[in-house]
Amino acid sequence: MRILVTGASGFIGGRFAAHALTQGLQVVCSGRQVTAMQWLADQGAHCIAGDLLDADFAVQASADCDAIVHCAGAVGTWGSYQHFHDANVRVTEHIIAAAQQRRIPRLVHLSSPSIYFDGQHHRNIHEDFRPPRFFDHYGATKYLADQKVFAAGRQGLEVIALRPRLVIGAGDTSVFPRLLRAHQSGRLRIIGRGDNRVDLTPVENVSQAMMLALQAPDSALGRAYNISNGQPVAFWPTFNQLLGTLGMPPLTRHMPYALAYGLASVAELKARLTPGQPEPALFRLGMAVMARDFNLDISAAREHLSYEPRVTTEQGIARFADWWQAGMPALADYLSTIDAHGG
């Protein structure tokens, strides 16, 4: 099977592309940064750099492919609605059009559980849950992208959307690194009581889910699946365990949620009023994510995709810690090391 992996210069897309190569698939990687994909080219992937906002590039990249795993998109919390709409909705439209033009039968779409988040506590969320409002542009535009994918499914394209929660592991530059740097600078506080429970998902399990989606039977098509380890953890005690592994002092100081949220609101307002809109140091979304219960029900993925997490949350955290302590080396070097030791 020959597949196109979009967003292969990113964390999730890159790790999946590497996994697909080990499974004997022919892999075409697309991303904006060719240097960020060189480690995949060294392993045998065909890497092509370009912007998927160019519909012709999407058609070019998908030539001779049997399936597309679409991981490209805008992530984060800062930017205009147009920025997120272009990267998440328009790009997905171009990928769908390319699949239809090339007669590529299957599209696996990387969605996000951010479409469920409204800043409140939620436990055991099912795929059909809809919040009364989207918290930010990212969640709103990922939802719209999903609708484009499902509409294409009703027109005959084989589609599956996956919604992995807080993906961790070697190569993560988002979840733990930001917190660790804030802690190192002395700025980080436990938000609220510190007993909120969340899902953490090792990237290896996300790659496994993507592979299962490529192979899924017709009965599994046309819907979204939550992906996590199915075992929510207490976020702040877990983070303190990571700090201990890394030889850093534990985090003990708390900040009331209302105060943290208010400070983030002021920071965002100041940033919006500043020419060029620099990214603020605090975000309302970050405060809410770090203080709220938020975990997914993964029974549908277990039933229809035969998904069972293989890498435990503890193993995922340990692999991130090893990578961080090693100085965040090139992923090709790190992955070859853990493979050599049976990791």
Compile the SSE list and pairings.
Elements: E1 2-6, H1 11-22, E2 26-31, H2 38-41, E3 46-49, H3 55-61, E4 67-70, H4 81-102, E5 106-110, E6 122-125, H5 137-154, E7 158-164, E8 167-168, H6 175-184, E9 190-191, E10 197-198, E11 201-202, H7 203-215, E12 223-227, E13 233-234, H8 235-245, E14 254-255, H9 257-272, H10 284-289, E15 294-296, H11 299-305, H12 313-325, H13 331-340
Parallel strand pairs: 1-2, 1-4, 2-3, 4-5, 5-7, 6-15, 7-12, 8-11, 9-14
Antiparallel strand pairs: 10-13
Straight-line N-to-C gap = 26 Å
Q: Could you say which overall geometry the principal axes of the C-alpha atoms support?
A: globular
Q: Which class of secondary structure composition applies to the elements?
A: alpha/beta
The CATH class label is Alpha Beta
- Give me the number of helical elements: 13
Question: If you consult CATH, what is the topology?
Answer: Rossmann fold
Tell me the name of the CATH homologous superfamily.
NAD(P)-binding Rossmann-like Domain
Strand content: 15-25%
The major β-sheet equals:
7 strands, parallel
Question: Order of helices and strands, N to C?
Answer: EHEHEHEHEEHEEHEEEHEEHEHHEHHH
Count of domain modules: 1
Q: Would you tell me the overall average pLDDT? A: 93
- What is the second-level CATH architecture? 3-Layer(aba) Sandwich
